[in-house]
Batch of 2 targets.
Target 1
Amino acid sequence: HINQTSLLESEDLLIIAHRGASAYAPEHTLVSYKLAKELGADYIEIDLQMTKDGHLVAMHDDTVDRTTNSEGKVSNFTLAELKKLDAGSWFNEELPEYANPDFENLKVPTLREIFEEFGHDVNYYIETKNPDQYTNMESALLSLLDEFGLLDETVEPGKVLIQSFSEKSLRTIHEMEPSLSLVQLQTQKEAKKATKKTFKKISEYAVAVGPNYKAIDEDYVKKATDAGLHVHPFTVDDPQEIEQLENWGVAGVFTNYTDIYEKLAKVR
Ligand code: G3P
Ligand code: CA
C-alpha cells in the first residue's frame, strides 16, 4: 500500500478476515487471527462482547453456547470464568474437514491479548456488538486503543476501523474520538431501503457502509460512493459473487475465506 493516503483508498479489493480465517480455524481465537495474517488478510475482523467484570472479549454471539463447551450470557461470566471454557472443540465437531487436535481447548481472547499479540502488525476491523447491553463499551474500547498507541497521530489512517449496526454506538465513538474511521453496518432490510438521504446522514460520522451483500446492487454501490462512502459488504464466500461486487465498485469484502483470491483466480 505504498503511496496510498489511507488503507481505505487501496486500489485492490480489501480482504477483511471475518472472525479471523474462520473457514479454517475456530472463529475469534488467536489461532484464527494468526492464520488470517499468514494468508495475507488486509484486516482482522473482531466482534466484541463484554464480561461481567468489564473486560472486552472477542466473541460473535452474546452467549457462549455456540462457540464454547458451556452455556449462558457472556455478561454473566467473569473473565476468569470465561477463560476456563474450551472455545475450539466445537469447530472440530462442526467442521471435521478442517478439524485439528491443536484447536481443542483454545481460549476466548481478550481484546488486550489480541493487541499484545499483534500490536501494530495487522489492521483491525472491530465491531461493538450489542452495545446497548453493555455500559461503557465504547470508552473501554477507546482506552485500550489509546494504551496500545493505536490512536496516535502517526498511525496510518484506516489502520483501525470501528464498525457497528448501532448508529448510537458509532456516534458516541465519533464524539469521543473524531479521528477514528467508522463503518455503519446494515442488515438486509436496512440496506434494501437505503436512499441517498440515508448515505448522506451516515457520512456525517462514518467513512464506509457494511451492508449485507444479499441486499445490494450496482445502484446501491453508486449511491453510497457518490455520498463519499466506501462499501464493504458482508459476508461473501463465493468468488463469483465477489467478482460481481468488485465490478460494481465495492472497496472491500468480509469473507470467511481469507485466501479467496486463490479461489477467484480459478474462476477468472
Ligand atoms: O461485521 C460485519 C459482519 O460480521 C456483520 O455480521 O453477524 O457476522 O457480525 P456478523
Ligand atoms: Ca462482525
Target 2
Amino acid sequence: KKQILLAERPIGTPDNNTFQFVETGIGQPENGEVLLRTLYVSVDPYMRGRMIDTPSYVAPYELNKVIEGGVIGEVIESKSDHFTQGDVVIGGYGWQTYYTAKETEVRKIDKDIAPISTHLGILGMTGLTAYFGLLEIGKPKEGETVVISGAAGAVGSVVGQIAKIKGARVIGIAGSDEKIQYLTEELHFDEAINYKTTSSLKKDLTKACPNGVDVYFDNVGGEISDAVLAHINKFARIPICGAISSYNLEGHDLGPRVQSTLIKKSALMQGFTVGDFANQFPEGSVSLAKWLQEGKLQYQETIKEGFENIPDAFLDLFKGNNIGKLLVKVADQ
Ligand code: NDP
C-alpha cells in the first residue's frame, strides 16, 4: 500500500520536501478488525497546524508517520461482527491507500442519503462546523446582516446558506470572480465581494452592508477581518472559525488590536472548534441532511483524482483553487 508521511515540519508554505511517499505491505485483519480500501481523502486547512510541533486542540503529526485526516473507505475484508464486505465507512486514518482498522476506529455511513463524499463535507466535519459555529455562536436573527469570509469554501458556503434559511441578509467575501458568481447566482447570497480585485474592501462593505454587520463568521483572519470589524453593529457576534491567512506565516500576524472595537460595540468574539459540539452532532447531522434533501442546501465539491496528487490538493487550499469541499478521489467504489 502507498502512504504519505510527514517528512519534515514546514516553515512557511509546505512544499514537496514536507511529504514523503512510501510503499509498505497491506496488513491482514485480525478478529475485531476490517481491511479498508481508501476511496476519498479529505484535505483540510487545520492539517497545516498539525504539521508543526506546538500545543493545540489536537496532537501534532509525528515525523515519519502517516498524515492523519478524514477518509472514506470501503470494507474489503471483515473480521468484525459489525461490518461486512462492501460497507462504506468514515475514519481518520489519513493519507494511505489501504488500512487495517479496529472496528472502533471507523463508523459506517449511510450510502443512500447522498453521495458518499458528502460525509467529508456538507454532511460531515465542515458542514457541522458551519452549522454549530453559526447557530450556537453567531445566532443570526431574521433581517440581520451576516458577513462570511472564505465564503465559497467548504465551511463558508454552508454558513451562508444556513444564514439565508434563517432569514438573514448574507454577504460573502471570496477570492475569484467565479466564486463570486457561484455565491450570488447559485447559492443566492445577497452580495459577494472579491477581496483580491477590489480597490477597497472597506468601501465595498459599506455599500453591501447599509445596516452594518450583526454576525461576522470569520474563516480567514488578517486584513479581511480588520475591514469587516470596522463595520460591526452593537451586540455583534463574531464566531472565529479559522484564520487561514496566517497559517503559513513565518512570524506573528500583526494588525489592529480588537479590544476597543469589541468594547464600543458590546460585541462577542468567540473561537471554537467543531469538537466543542460533539454531543450535539446527531442533531446537526439530521438538520443538514434534511435541508439537503429538501433542496434548501446545495453543495459543490472540488475533486482531484489520484493518491499522488494529495499533497498538491492540500496546497491548493492555500491558493484558493477550490470551490466548496476539496477532496481527493483515490479509488472507485
Ligand atoms: P475552504 O474550503 O474554505 O478552503 C480554504 C479557502 O481559504 C481557499 O479556497 C481560499 O479561498 C481561502 N484562503 C486561502 N488562503 C487565504 C488567505 N491568505 N486569505 C484569505 N482567504 C484565503 O476550507 P474549509 O472550509 O475547510 O475551512 C475554512 C476555514 O475554517 C479554515 O480557516 C479552517 O482552518 C477553518 N475550520 C475550522 C474548524 C473548526 O472546528 N474551528 C473546522 C473546519 C475548518 P479564496 O479564493 O476565497 O481566497
